[in-house]
Amino acid sequence: MSSSTPIAPTKDKLNVLSFAGKNKILHLGWMAFFLTFFVWFNHAPFLSAIGETLNLSKDQVKTLLILNVALTIPARVIIGMLTDRFGPRIVYTAILSIGAIPCFTFAFAQDYNTLALSRFLLGFVGAGFVVGIRLMSDWFPTNELGTAEGIYGGWGNFGSAAAALLLPTIAIGAAAVFGGDEGWRYATAMSGVVMALYSIVFYRMARNTPKGATYFKPKKSGAMMVTSSGDFWLMMAFKLPMYLALALLAWKLSPSGVSLLSQSSVTMVYIGLAVLYIYEFISSYRFNKEVFTTPVPKAHRYDFKQVGILNILYFATFGSELAVVSMLPLFYQETFSLSIVMAGVLASSYAFMNLMSRPGGGWLSDKFGRKITLLILTAGLAVGYIFMGFLDSTWPLALALLITMFCSFFVQAGEGAVFAVIPLIKRSMTGQFAGMTGAYGNVGSVVYLTVLSLVSYQVFFFVIAATAVVGFFALFFLKEPEGVIIEEMPDGTFAEIQVSHK
After folding, report:
1. CA–CA separation, 251 vs 453, rounded Å?
2. CA distances, 57 to each of 47, 50, 380 (Å)
3. Which of 108, 153, 178, 360 has the most neighbouring CB atoms within 10 Å?
């Protein structure tokens, strides 16, 4: 067995003030992620203006929010597979450039159908996050990987908050220059222009791996590879909730929800999803049928249980973040009788924590170990949401804000800690694992927002806390990454990749 390191030398330290070597890749990566999230949420500040321009009903406006996240669930899985196959440089460039097209059609839509279809297609842009997870894993050594992934995720994720802060000002300026009262069109289109231009920068400056390093690919492509019969059944069990979440989104578009689709159309969606799941089951079985008869060589083995546990944790962390960011301004406004502006400012504290919390979670994982960090952060997440569930108008506003920030720290640090583990399971499949786990974050948001539509704010927070408790107990079955993982080189020899956190 030969040994080869696919990552940059540890003497080249992580330094966010540097724009050289692997630090350049870190900055290129988080800026790409930032722009995809900036574009993905460029409609949020303008929902009322968009409604007025096109004479939309409240249900139609709400439907745009649903459509914005619908495609992201399957897209993250697909993007993960493409990233492992073709590399982050090509895949991220494609997302940044092609994603600008539906951004432009959304910005200048003259009817609701064009607007809705464009928003649906923009859900694919939200899958860009997955690409950078693989990119960071090939550039940073294990003792810095959690921190690098955390910075990438935290700073990039801030793109959604930046869109809310910057785009309204740009829209006002655009309206003054071009005239009229549709500045939102120019502001959203501008975000697409910037993203498309950055695709050129990323393509010219980014590389999949350091010079001389190997980019490991799965031995086979077409479906997710598992290495035992038990893992096959576990994988298919974890794929089912993604289909159920899409069915739930279809239900929200039905006459029982916002009535965008007829009942017969929704029924066809249900049938289509069932057929797709059966097709995926059959194709996955054919792809992995050897594991039922022939033991997989040690060099190619991994434990899918690791991925499943991280799926549960990301469901509770990122899933709750997406849901809470959506409802928190209204929660503050109704609970404490605040103005819309003040409620929005206070609620933004939840998103601002991303800048430090997610990198903090990755750093803690690098410093103290992956499993213990996840246990502590998941416990804190559960406690934070329990406190959120007890908040009411009798609580001091300052204390409510403090609890919100406490909760958001554990949520976002937990996200960073989850993706400090993902690249350490099997390097050649990091994109696929990141895609599935990332999709579970969107599944969580769909489930939590559906729960919110049926129960009170208090019960909503308690439900999130309960899922965090489930994740906490699941963590006891997680194996701390240690020793090495083995990947096959193009010449048939094998490379050892260190995965211990120290």
Report:
1. 13
2. 11, 11, 40
3. 153
3 located within any domain: no
Count of CB atoms situated within 10 Å of the CB of 459: 13
pLDDT at 491: 67
- What distance, in Å, lies between the first and last C-alpha atoms of the chain? 23
> Letter for the amino acid at 10?
T
Which carries the bigger pLDDT value, residue 214 or residue 498? Answer: 214
What integer pLDDT is reported at residue 340 of this predicted model?
67
Where does residue 294 fall: left (phi above 0), alpha (psi -120 to 50 degrees), or beta otherwise?
Answer: beta
Q: Which two tokens stand for residue 156?
A: 């990039």
Q: Give dist(CA 77, CA 79) in Å, integer.
A: 6
Packed helices 354-368 and 370-390: angle between N→C axes, nearest 10 degrees: 140
Of 453, 444, 454, the closest CA to residue 381 belongs to: 444
| Domain annotation covers residue 193 | yes
Cα–Cα dist 14/9, whole Å: 11
Say if residue 6's pLDDT is above 60: no
pLDDT value at residue 345: 75
Q: Return the HEC string of 142-175.
A: HHHHHHHHHHHHHHHHCHHHHHHHHHHHHHHHHH
Instruction: Look at residue 395 and tell me if it is in a domain.
Output: yes
Closest CA to 93 of 29, 185, 169: 29
pLDDT mean over 107-133 = 92
Question: Among residues 444, 304, 310, 457, which one has the least CA distance to residue 378?
Answer: 310
Both tokens of 382, joined, read 């559960």
75: its two tokens = 């897209």
Contact between residue 259 and residue 194 where contact means Cβ atoms under 8 Å apart? no
The pTM score is 0.89
Here the CATH number for the domain that contains residue 44 is 1.20.1250.20
Using DSSP's 3-state secondary structure scheme, residue 498 falls into strand
Torsion from C-alpha of 230, 235, 238, 239, nearest 10 degrees: -140
Q: How many helices (H) and strands (E) does the chain have?
A: 20, 2
CB-CB contact of 448 with 392 (8 Å): no
The pair of structure tokens assigned to 145 is: 């990987």
Q: Does 9 fall in a domain?
A: no
Determine contact, residues 128/32, Cβ cutoff 8 Å: yes
Confidence of residue 501 (pLDDT cuts 50, 70, 90): low
- Indicate the residue type of 169: T
Given a cut of 90, is residue 436 above it in pLDDT?
Answer: yes
Give the angle subtended at the CA of 129 by the CAs of 37 and 241, to the nearest 5°: 105
3-class DSSP state for residue 485?
Answer: strand
Range of the domain at 242: 21-498
Locus of tokens 């792809």: 287
Mean pLDDT of 283-299: 88
3 state SS of 488:
strand
Tally the domains of the chain.
1
Q: What is the C-alpha separation between 173 and 287, in angstroms, rounded? A: 55
